[in-house]
Records
---
Amino acid sequence: NAGVTQTPKFQVLKTGQSMTLQCAQDMNHEYMSWYRQDPGMGLRLIHYSVGAGITDQGEVPNGYNVSRSTTEDFPLRLLSAAPSQTSVYFCASSYSYGSGANVLTFGAGSRLTVL
Amino acid sequence: GQNIDQPTEMTATEGAIVQINCTYQTSGFNGLFWYQQHAGEAPTFLSYNVLDGLEEKGRFSSFLSRSKGYSYLLLKELQMKDSASYLCAVMDSNYQLIWGAGTKLIIKP
């Protein structure tokens, strides 16, 4: 049981380049989400999905796209990277959405640097 | 606006007890979570409180007072492996998590 798998673990981009962060879970979780974590700040929600074919914006969605074609996969696309997107990105999933006791399982994180 | 406050850093001694506080102001409340995050790793779930009172889980306990918008995480018999950041998060009325910036706990021998 792998849980939540994120790739790549590290990535360096130049301003203007595009890339996709991959996220896959094997727990049959309905809910998947992407967060960014920056020093001195709480985790900030970028996009989330409550099921295959359904996505919605979080707190900081600008510059990012997502899709959810299957239950297992939830890739995050950076369309034109900017230095402000330098951060650690976490994918997280949970069994369902809309109930309080919704424990998130996180991937190992992807450290992105944009030069 | 919505806000979660917790101390930036705390230091404690191995074998001692430490209490990490979290205060919150959110649009609605559907529960409060504590997560542990070791440096360079992913957050992992520690506890969930939705009713007032104390929840005990081994060396870790979490307390909630909804009327005061206050929670604490109590760690007993501290071990060096407890050195980590502790994240407080509140689920608001839309079932979205609002996260604090985390408390970095340093354990000294």
---
Amino acid sequence: AQTVTQSQPEMSVQEAETVTLSCTYDTSESNYYLFWYKQPPSRQMILVIRQEAYKQQNATENRFSVNFQKAAKSFSLKISDSQLGDTAMYFCAFTERNTGNQFYFGTGTSLTVIP
Amino acid sequence: DSGVTQTPKHLITATGQRVTLRCSPRSGDLSVYWYQQSLDQGLQFLIQYYNGEERAKGNILERFSAQQFPDLHSELNLSSLELGDSALYFCASSVVEAWDRRKTYGYTFGSGTRLTVV
């Protein structure tokens, strides 16, 4: 079964510092996508970054980058120069060919940026 | 504004009642997905429609049903409501029907409907 595990329910970081959120997943497929979504207090789910499994290069989007370790089935999110607006729940998500376009989500990590 | 519109934003109802949640997908998107987010949990996939037809089913209860109309908006019907059905219900849309390596860019989510059953 496809699973996504986020082992850090809560994290905090000082403003302007760097923080890394962890995610592991389980699949027997070689073709899949991984995502990080952000859910601020407004509840809106916002796509932060996406990684294609067949690409070796780690994805980056401004202050957000991932460390994709395919063999280890690990997909961590690094937030650099943390800002107060980064305070949110962060969900790791996964979709693979055999599941159509259904996404599997982790239980989330609540990140608080401290001024 | 993500382009996916969900109404209502909040809904409070009593046990045993029936409610309908509505979703309008982003312009150009043919797939609509419904997810349930309960307290302290991630999002659980309920059901997917593509261009009016059901495409995939997840952990959707028999008391729940959905449909997608010709104008592509979708409705999620929840009946015989129980306290445990209280949750945030998200609708999301995408352009693709199914897995497409070239096009799986991720969903666009609506802002959700907060359902409280009392």
